[in-house]
C-alpha cells in the first residue's frame, strides 16, 4: 500500500524558491531600496569612524593643551580645538563611541525586557498579564523626558562616579523604553497564540517554554528587528538630550550631547561654531540614517504595516 | 479486546454572550485497537468539538468540558495533570487538522517541525531525529526528502503540507490518530491520496483513527464504525456496512439520500429541509423533529434515548420505540 502512494507523488516544489531562505529573500528586497541602503551605509560609516578613527588620531580626547585653546579648524586640528585645547575631531569620535554604545546597549536591553515581558504577558494572560501591563502603563503615563530628568537629577544627587554613569544612563533609557515594546509584542502574541499552528503545537505536547521561544518569538522577529533599529535612534537622541542638560554622561567623558552643551555659551555659539556643529551634525546624520534604514527594514520585513 | 479509547458521557459547553451552549451533549463511544471510527454530521453538530475535547483543546474562559470520562490506557484524560497530558499528546495521541496551510509554523523549516516531537517525546538526538524525519517524509510519499527538510511551509502545496502534518502526527507511533476533516481543504484528487496514505499507515502500524468528516464518501472509504451526530448528540451509530445498508434514523437517511449516486440522473439533488436548530434554544425534544418527515407529537416533547436495535446498530428515535411508548 505504502509503495504505490510513493509512485503517485506528482507534486513538486517550485525550483526558483528552492534555495533562498526567508532572510535572504528579505535581504534581496532590501537591496532594492536605495534610500535604506544609503542609511545603512551612513550608520556603518559612523560606527567605523567612531570605533576605529581615534586610533589614527595623534591626540587623545582628554589631553589638555593650553597652547592650542579655541583654535579654529586648521590642518593640524581638522575641526579645531575647544577651550582646553582638546582636539574636537578626536573628541567627536570618542563621543560617538559612547553615544553609539549607549544607544545600542539600551536598545538591546529594552528589546530583551520588552519582548520577554510582552511575550509572557500575552501568552499566559490572566494575573501575570495584569501585573506586567499595569507596570508598563504606569511607566507610560509619566512622560519619558521628565522621568529621565528625575532619574538624572537623582544620579547627580547620589554622586554616582562618572565612569558608572554611562551604564546607569543605558539602564534608565531601557526602563523608559521597554513598555512600548512590551505592548506591541503582547498584541502580537495575543493574535499568534490563537493561530492554528499553535493549537498544533499544543497537540504535539510541547512545553510552554518551547512554544514561546521556538514557535512564537521567531514569528515576531521581523517586528523586533524594525522596532530595535528605530529604538537605537531614539536612545541616542534621549542620551544626547540628557547629556546636554548635564544629567546624562558627565564631562570630561565626551558624548555628542554634552559636547553640544558648548552652544549654551553665547560666545561659543556665536564665535566658535566648530565646537558644536560637528557633534550636532553627527547626531543628526546618525539618527536620520538609522530612521531611514529602519523604515526600509519595515517595508521589507513587515509589509502589512506600510503606511 | 480492550478499546484504545473509551469515551463516556462527554459533555462540552461554551460560554457565549447569549448564554451557555452545550456543543457536545452526553456523547459516549469506544474506539477499538486498529479501528477507524468516523464521526459524521453537518456543520455545527459538535463533531470537531468532540475531537477538541478529547485533545484537551477546549479551554476556559471560552468553554469547558463539563462532564464525562475519556478513558485512555486506564486513565481519565480529563483528570490528568498538565505534565502527564503533555507526554500523551503528540506521543500516544496525535491529531491532524483541517487546514494544513495554517497548521504549520510559517517561520520554521519543515525539518525542524518534524524533528521536534521526536526529540521531545522519544528523546532522540539531532542526528537520529534527522534520519527518522527523512524516513517519515519518504513514508508519506514525498520524494526529495532532504530538500523538503530545508523548506518553509509556504514553499509547499496544500497536499504536501497535509502529508507533512501526517508525518509529524505519526512520528512517535501514536496509538490513536485524530483527524479533524483532514481532506476538506484539499482538492478531490489529493483527497483520495491522503486517505490512501492514512489507510496505509494504519495498516502498517495498527493505530486507531478517529476521523471527523462531513463527507459520506470518505466515511464509506475509511470507516469501520460510524457515529452520526446531530446538535451535539449521537443520533445513530453502527458498523459501516450495516449503517449504509440499513440507515434507521431519519437524519441518517436524509444524509445518505442527499449524496449524488453515480449514473443516476435527477432534476434536483435531495436536501434535508431546514437548518440545524440554534443550540441556544433547545427544548426537551428530539432536536431533529422540525426537519423530520416522520415527526410525531412525542418528538416535540420528549427526547429519545440511544437504544440498540439489533445488527449492532444504535439509534435514538421515537420511531423505534413505539412498542415501549404505548405500554
From TrEMBL, chain A:
The residues that cross the membrane are: 35-56, 98-123, 135-155, 167-185, 216-237, 274-297
Q: Which UniProt keywords apply?
A: Cell membrane, Membrane, Transmembrane, Transmembrane helix, Transport
Give the protein family: Belongs to the binding-protein-dependent transport system permease family.
Q: Which coarse location class describes where this protein primarily resides?
A: membrane
SUPFAM superfamilies in UniProt:
MetI-like (SSF161098)
Domain of life (superkingdom): Bacteria
Organism expressing this protein natively = Paenibacillus silagei
Question: What does the UniProt entry say about where the protein is found?
Answer: Cell membrane
* Protein name in the entry: Peptide/nickel transport system permease protein
Keyword Cell membrane on entry:
yes
Membrane topology is: Multi-pass membrane protein
Renumbered to this chain, the signal peptide range is: none
The question of whether Protein transport is a record keyword is answered with: no
Q: Which InterPro entries match?
A: BP-dependent_transpt_permease, MetI-like, MetI-like_sf, Oligopeptide_permease_AppC, OppC_N
From TrEMBL, chain B:
| Taxonomic source organism | Paenibacillus silagei
Transmembrane ranges, per UniProt, are none
Give one Pfam family, short name only: oligo_HPY
GO molecular-function terms, A-Z: ATP binding
Q: Which InterPro entries match?
A: AAA+_ATPase (IPR003593), ABC_Ni/Peptide_Import (IPR050388), ABC_transporter-like_ATP-bd (IPR003439), ABC_transporter-like_CS (IPR017871), Oligopep_ABC_C (IPR013563), P-loop_NTPase (IPR027417)
Tell me the keywords, alphabetical order. ATP-binding, Cell membrane, Membrane, Nucleotide-binding, Transport
Q: Which residues form the ABC transporter domain?
A: 5-256
UniProt protein name: Oligopeptide/dipeptide ABC transporter ATP-binding protein
Q: How does it sit in the membrane?
A: Peripheral membrane protein
Keyword match Cytoplasm:
no
Q: Which family does it belong to?
A: Belongs to the ABC transporter superfamily.
Q: Where in the cell is it found?
A: Cell membrane
